[in-house]
């Protein structure tokens, strides 16, 4: 697998994959598709040396998906804590890439200044919860029924892992 810093030219790819997850109501709290303009400010708030967005490709140069890191809370004391998000193209989901991506992310946390990683995952997304648990994350919070989508309430689990540096 190859990881590279995303450029603004990757934004259509990032948005397409993100939008592909919305109908399933498993991954994001967005209810309607987003557009490129909606994500420009989000993109600009990432810094390759501390809070990157990576495009992930396989050895055949197919784009598998993307990974992003973002600040947890925005206060100086939380500087070493980041939320990680992984979005894969539907044709590459369920094939073990999530484990490889998390392993790579762990190996880069020290240089990114990250000592704690968080994953914000809907409680009903058992596949992602199991992946994060398998990779050493623990459930640190269960925010009960805080999301409302299609007249249903969903709980959000925060999975956390300390990174050895």
Brief synopsis:
The chain has 165 residues and is of the alpha+beta class. It contains four helices and seven strands; from the N terminus they run βααβββαβαββ.
Description:
- The structure is a single chain.
- With 165 residues, the chain is α+β, with helices and mostly antiparallel strands.
- Helix content is 27%, strand content 34%.
- The protein has four helices and seven strands; from the N terminus they run βααβββαβαββ.
Give the helix/strand layout.
Layout: E1 2-5, H1 11-21, H2 36-44, E2 53-57, E3 63-71, E4 81-88, H3 97-112, E5 116-122, H4 126-134, E6 138-149, E7 152-162
Parallel strand pairs: 4-5
Antiparallel strand pairs: 1-2, 2-3, 3-4, 5-7, 6-7
Structural key phrases:
single chain, 7 strands, seven-stranded mixed beta sheet, Aminopeptidase, 165 residues
Overall mean pLDDT stands at: 95
CATH fold annotation: Aminopeptidase
Gap between N and C termini = 23 Å
How is the largest sheet built, in terms of strand order?
1-2-3-4-5-7-6
- Residue windows where pLDDT falls under 50 for at least 5 positions: none
Structural class: alpha+beta
Query: What share of the residues does DSSP label as strand, in percent?
Result: 25-35%
CATH H-level superfamily: Gcn5-related N-acetyltransferase (GNAT)
Overall shape: globular
The helical percent reads: 25-40%
């Amino acid at each position: 697998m190859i990881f590279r810093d995303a450029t603004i030219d990757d934004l259509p790819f990032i948005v397409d994959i993100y939008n592909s997850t919305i109908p399933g109501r498993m991954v994001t709290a967005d209810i309607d598709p987003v557009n490129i303009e909606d994500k420009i400010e989000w993109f600009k708030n990432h810094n390759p040396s501390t809070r990157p967005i990576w495009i992930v490709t396989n050895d055949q140069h197919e784009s598998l998906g993307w990974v992003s890191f973002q600040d947890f809370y925005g206060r100086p004391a939380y500087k070493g804590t980041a939320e990680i998000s992984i979005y894969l193209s539907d044709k590459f989901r369920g094939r073990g890439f999530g484990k490889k991506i998390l392993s790579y992310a762990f190996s880069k946390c020290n240089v990114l200044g990250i000592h704690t990683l968080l994953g914000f995952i809907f409680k009903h997304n058992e596949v992602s919860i199991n992946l994060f648990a398998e990779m050493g994350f623990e459930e640190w919070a269960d925010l009960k029924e805080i999301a409302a989508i299609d007249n249903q309430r969903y709980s959000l689990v925060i999975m956390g892992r300390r990174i050895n540096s």
